[in-house]
Write a structure and sequence with these properties.
- This is Pimeloyl-ACP methyl ester carboxylesterase.
- Residues 3-219 form the AB hydrolase-1 domain.
- The chain has helices at 20-25, 47-60, 74-83, 134-143, 149-152, 177-185, 190-194, 209-212, 214-226, and strands at residues 2-6, 29-32, 65-70, 88-94, 115-116, 147-148, 168-172, 198-202.
- The longest helix has 14 residues, at 47-60.
- The protein starts with a strand and ends with a helix.
- Helix 2 (47-60) crosses helix 3.
- Helices cover 33% and strands 16% of the residues.
- With 227 residues, the chain is an alpha/beta fold.
- It has a single domain (2-226), classed as Rossmann fold, CATH 3.40.50.1820.
- The protein has nine helices and eight strands.
Length: 227
């Protein structure tokens, strides 16, 4: 099965370099998605541009595909399920949850000169970054790609209720499955509260398991591909 891999904020497709060979060894075809504005030098990209790139990858798959979104890109994965409910076999959400219709995609941090730069490690102290040593943090910060304002402030639009029939696996790295279930039950994640097939998988890592636990993450993703 084709497995589309969508990285979160400040990352390009190379974020999945540790996961790709593991998925291939497990018999799948991993496809890291190049997002406009995150690695192609375009500072004017919009959320619509990124959605179009994801949908192009879905449409290029020979059959149904699994769509994996990390962090903010969980919303991109969910947008793919909304736009192509018959083509998406399932969605894997790694360390994040989908935004609802009418909500901003990722307006989390200060924008400067038309982009949202990596804000440094202070907002991520604690469980998010506990498994990253100083060298890994330095590498991440040096490679971080400022996210175009048109992406971060883009508005999510969901239109097809058939997305709620697409199976979802929530991979819980810096939080636990019980915490995720609690947030959904409390109404903090309305999209998943309406989804009909939601599973949870615990992964003992920080917010970027594709870097620190690629083998374990690949196995969880492959399990979701098997259904």
């Amino acid at each position: 099965m084709d497995i589309l891999l969508i990285a979160g904020l400040w990352l390009d497709a190379s974020a999945w370099d540790g996961v790709v060979p593991e998925l291939a060894a497990l018999g799948h075809r991993p496809v890291p998605v190049d997002l406009p504005g995150q690695g192609d030098g375009s500072g004017s990209a919009t959320l619509d541009d990124q959605v179009a790139a994801v949908l192009a990858a879905v449409d290029a798959a020979p059959g149904k595909c699994l769509v994996v979104g990390h962090s903010a890109a969980c919303s991109l994965a969910w947008l793919a399920a909304d736009a192509r409910p018959r083509r998406v076999a399932g969605v894997v959400l790694v360390g994040g949850f989908p935004a609802g219709d009418g909500q901003p995609y990722a307006d989390f941090f200060e924008h400067r000169d038309g982009v949202m730069p990596f804000p440094g490690w202070d907002p991520f102290e604690g469980p998010d970054s506990a498994d990253l040593d100083e060298r890994a943090r330095e590498r991440f910060a040096a490679a971080a790609i400022p996210v175009p304002e048109g992406v971060g402030k883009g508005v999510v639009r969901l239109t097809d209720d058939r997305r709620f029939d697409v199976p979802v696996l929530v991979v819980c790295p810096e939080f636990t499955p019980d915490q995720a279930r609690g947030w959904i039950a409390a109404g903090d994640v309305p999209e998943l509260a309406r989804a009909r097939h939601v599973g949870f998988a615990d992964l003992d890592s920080g917010h970027w398991p594709m870097t620190t636990r690629p083998v374990e993450l690949a196995r969880l993703v492959a399990g979701a591909a098997r259904g």
